[in-house]
Amino acid sequence: MNAIFSIGGVKSSASQLGIVDAKIIRRCSGLDELKLSLASPEFLEKFSIDNTIEVFVDSVKKFSGKIIKTPITLAGKTQNASIIAYNAWNDLEQIVYQQKWVRFANNTVGNFYRSKVVLGQNNNSEKINVGEQIRDIAEYAIMCGANFKIGNIDVDAPMLLDETRDLSCSQAILRVLKWAPNAFAFFDYSSDSIPTLNVQKCTSLEKIILDNSIDSILKVSITPRPDLSLDGVSIKYEQENIINSKSTLTIFEDNYPTDISSSSQKILVMSVDLDGKKASCHTYKIVCENIDLDSTHWWAKHIPSLPEADIEILETSITDGSYLRELIDGTIPSSLNFKKQSAIAKAKIKYIKDDGTICIKNVATRILTTTAQTGTYSVWRTSQYAEPKPNGLAKAIYEASARLLHEGSVELANALEQDFIGKTISISIPDHSDLLTINSPVIFVEENIAKEKTSIKIGTPNHLYPDKIAELFRISRNRKITESSFLRTSAQNDSTISDMTAQQPLDNGSEGDTNYQRLLISKIESEDSAKKIDINSDDIGENETAQMTQIYLCHNGYLASAKILMTEPIIEDEF
C-alpha cells in the first residue's frame, strides 16, 4: 500500500498504524469519507476522535478530514476495528446557517443573527445570484469554525428569494444549487493547507479522456439518458400587488426557447410567486397658526387661566424663533419634509384682579414651531416592495438541462494518482467512438488504496434526483416567498410600520411665578361696612422693601417685642 497517513501532523505508513485496508469515497455536493480497517483493536490508541487525518498517495494529498468514529466489530473470536473520517462537508452539516437581521433588543436597534433566512439576498436586502449566496453561506460556516477555504465559485445563475428557517449550511447550499442544475460543489485537497471548496458549472470543468491503450480500464457501463433532457422551460411569475387594500394579480411569462408552448411534453413549467408591492395612502390634516407673542389672545389661548381682557404684556422671548408658525392640530410626519422643532415661549405679564390686586407674572408655554401651513396632505407609504423578476432564469435552467446526459460507471486500475472528482470524463475505446462524446461529470469516486483500484460514477449532480427530471419541477414547489424583502434591514414589521418621527402639537402652558404690585384683602360685613387691608407697593419708596421686622416696645410697663410689616427705619437729618 503506497500511501502515507498523517494524524495530528505526524506522518506514518500504513503498516506502522496497523492499516490493512483503506478506502476514500468522494462525492460531489456531498460528504467525503475515509474508511480504514485495522489489523487489531490495539492500534486504535493511535487514532483519537476529532483528530485531523490526511492521506497522501505518491506525495499527492487525497483526503483531509476529522476522525469521527472508531467502531469495533466482534465475530466469534476475532475482533475487527475500523476508522471513519469525514471531510469539511461534515462541518457544513453541523452548522446552522444564520443571517444578520436588524432588530430591537434592550431598547437598542442592532444586528442579530437569526436562523430564519432569506436565500437570494445579502445583508443589505439586495438580490444576489446563486454563486454569491453560496459564498455567503461558506463564509458564515468558516466564521463558525468550519475547516476549509473558499476556492472557485463561478456559478452566476439567477435565483428567486426563498424564505426558510433552521437549515444547516450544507442544506442551504443544496437548496440554492437547485437553481443551477448543471453545477455542483466539491472539495480539492491538493493544496498544502486546508481543503478548498469549489462550486462550478459542468461546462467549466476540466475534461479527462480515459484512453484504454494507456489507462487500465477494467469495466465500463454507460447509459445515455435522453429522458433527463428538456425541450424547453416555461416560468410563470405571479405577483400580487396590494394598493390601499385593493389586490391585483400580475402574471409574467418567461419561456426559453421563446417559441415553445408550455402545453407540451418535456417542457418544465413552473409557477413562481413573487413578492408583490404593498402600499397605502395616508392623509394628514394639519392646522397651523402664526406665532404672535405680543397678542394677549395668543397667550390666553395657551394659558386659559389668564384673564385675556385685562392682560398687559411687558416682556416676551422664545428659545428659537426660526420658524414663524406653530402646529395647532394634526400630525406632521417626516415624509412631508416640513421643518419643525420644539420651542419655549416666555412672557412677563401684568393684570388686575377683580378685587383690585395687581399681579405681575412670568408665564411660559412649550410649542412645536414649524414651516408647515394649514392644509390636507397625502403621503404614500410602501410597506413591501415588489420582488424584481429574474432575468434569464428560464434560459439558465434550460441550458443546464437540455444537453444529452449519461450515467454509468467506470472501474480503473492503477489510477490513484489521478483526481477525478470535479472533472468530466470521456472514454477512448476502439470501435466505441460514441463514448468520446459523453463528457459527463464525475459525481462519485471510491478509491481502494489497498487494491489500487478506482471506481467512478458519472451522472447528474447529487442535489438532483438521478432518475427523473421531476426534481426540477419541485424547485419552486416548497419555496416560501418572503414576508417582506426588506425586513432584514428594518427593525419594524410590515404590519405595524409607522412614521416614528411624526410629531403632534405641544402645549403645556405654565403660569410660572407671580409678583403682586398691590394686594387688597377685604371683608364685606354689610353694604355700608367693610374691613380692608391694602398693601400697595406704590406706598414704598424706591429700592425699599417692606417685610416682617421685630421691634421692641413698652407694653403694660414691661419691655416687650412684636413683629410688624415695615420698611427699614431711616434716620432723618432734620425734622
Overview of the structural elements:
The chain has 575 residues and is mainly beta. It is elongated. 9% of the residues lie in helices and 46% in strands. Helix 3 runs antiparallel to helix 4.
Report the radius of gyration as a whole number of Å: 44 Å
Summarize model confidence as the mean pLDDT: 83
Instruction: Classify the helix fraction into a percent range.
Output: under 10%
Low-confidence stretches: 465-473, 493-498
Distance between the termini: 138 Å
Structural class: mainly beta
Please report the number of helical segments.
7
Query: Rough shape?
Result: elongated
Please count the beta strands (DSSP E, at least 2 residues each): 34
Major beta sheet, specifics?
14 strands, mixed
Fraction in beta strands: over 45%
In short:
The protein contains seven helices and 34 strands.
List keywords for this structure.
single chain, mainly beta
Topology:
Elements: E1 3-7, E2 10-13, H1 14-17, E3 19-27, E4 33-38, E5 52-57, E6 60-69, E7 72-75, E8 78-86, H2 89-94, E9 99-105, E10 108-114, E11 116-119, H3 130-143, E12 149-153, E13 162-165, H4 169-177, E14 183-188, E15 196-201, E16 206-211, E17 216-225, E18 232-243, E19 246-256, E20 267-274, E21 278-290, H5 296-302, E22 312-318, E23 325-329, E24 340-352, E25 358-370, E26 375-384, H6 393-401, E27 405-413, E28 423-428, E29 440-448, E30 453-458, H7 470-473, E31 514-524, E32 530-536, E33 547-555, E34 558-566
Parallel strand pairs: 12-15, 16-28, 18-20, 18-21
Antiparallel strand pairs: 1-2, 1-5, 3-4, 3-29, 4-8, 5-6, 6-8, 7-8, 9-10, 11-13, 14-15, 17-27, 18-19, 21-23, 21-26, 22-24, 23-25, 24-25, 25-31, 27-30, 28-29, 29-30, 31-32, 33-34
Helix pairs in contact: 3-4
